[in-house]
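User: What would this chain look like folded?
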Amino acid sequence: MLNLPILPILISIPIIGLIFILLSSENDEFALQSKRSALWTSISNFILSLYLPFNFDKTIPHFQFVNSFGWFNSDNLKFSLGVDGLSMPFIVLSTFLILLCVIFLYPQKKKNMRMYLASFILLESFLIGTFSSIDLFSFYIFFESILIPMYLIIGFWGGERRIYSAYKFFLYTLLGSVLMLLAIIFLYQEFGTTSIPRLFDFSLPFYIQVWLWLAFFASFAVKIPMWPFHTWLPDAHVEAPTEGSVILAGILLKLGGYGFIRFNLSILPDASIFFTPFIYFLSVIAILYTSLIALVQEDMKKLIAYSSVAHMGFVTLGIFSSNLQGLHGAIIQMISHGIISAALFFSIGSIYNRYKTKEINFFGGLGHKMSKFSVFFLIFTLGAIGFPGTSGFIGEYLTLLSVYSKSTLVAFLSATGVILAASYMLILYKRVFLGVVNERIERKTERLNFFEILTYSILAVVIFIFGIKPNLILDYTSSSLERIIKLYPISIF
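Assistant: Here's the prediction, encoded as structure tokens.
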């Protein structure tokens, strides 16, 4: 293995690309210079991110590719980077989805495209920094920095209520993170370090774990988001531009699940055991309640937004099931949802770009006019409902299997959500693509362009690959998750 500082490079390349984008011509009507800069930056970073899985030792549960730099002239506060089997898949997912966003954007004209592309490239750097930070202080800085470009994406390029949605998104997530900052300060005062690997070796009294657990929970429950902290998500999705919704659902929601595993389970195992019934209660409500709300939605983006909350309910069930199957199910579910939700939001973006509406009642019989598109959307729909052979099936199956070993009632109620998901997704497909062609879409139909076909083809292939070969992910995560399970041995039922 080459001694390559791959993580600092992955964080730095988007910053370099950002400079080229900002220096591109402002008079370029189609922003071709800035698009090319963004495309080459995202391609380069995605290819370089593949260095991680190709050189990763699957048998080692600890952090690899570690780089550490001094911070504020302190030996205890350091800018430390590293990846293990938990964080590595999310770094690759981040570079992958940012690349697809740039590809999807390439033929489009958008107001101030240069700054729009710059926001996504900057966001990529922050995401990689968040998933690769192995110091609590570094993690918090990157974690909060993500809010800035995402706020701009929603607030400047969103819909009519973009300002309200951007403020709501920003304030919800920021307020939750304040309590996490207090928990980080406490840990530093208690142990004299914010190094995550070193914190794994310490233990805390149960009553302190409870308060720290709640502080981390406040931040990650909003981010994932769990019921009843989810109310910012539908507004943000509806008003965000297509690519913003893709990153929001595909990556940002995964920060909550990642945080639960990295901090709540790994550092605070006793409190995690204590709060598991509470998590199960919230997760089941999220699955059932938001699925029922999704059934009656008339806006396609809002329907997929509520379905995201339901799918994240399966993630939290798996995370707190205290066994390897549950954690594997949660990881697969997060990666799968990142890909499938991205595909669905890209698809809705294609529809909106042509008809300037996301209202389901506006359509009907679209499959007769756009047959290739209808096939792609059907694949994404089957993935969303967990059809066997797709990545969505593996995550839900492992999660329900792990929950069933703890509580048959929780497993039964959660499985009802699978039926509801099939209902609202198939109804959506029927109303938009099947039946008689609506006269409102008869007059205007455009074929998918090359960039859309490329984006959808890549996503469809990945959905089937991970559905057939989930070990492509699980082989990397097993060692790291087994280390966590050893800290989390007690059954609560």
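The chain has a mean pLDDT of 87. If you want, I can go into more detail on any region.
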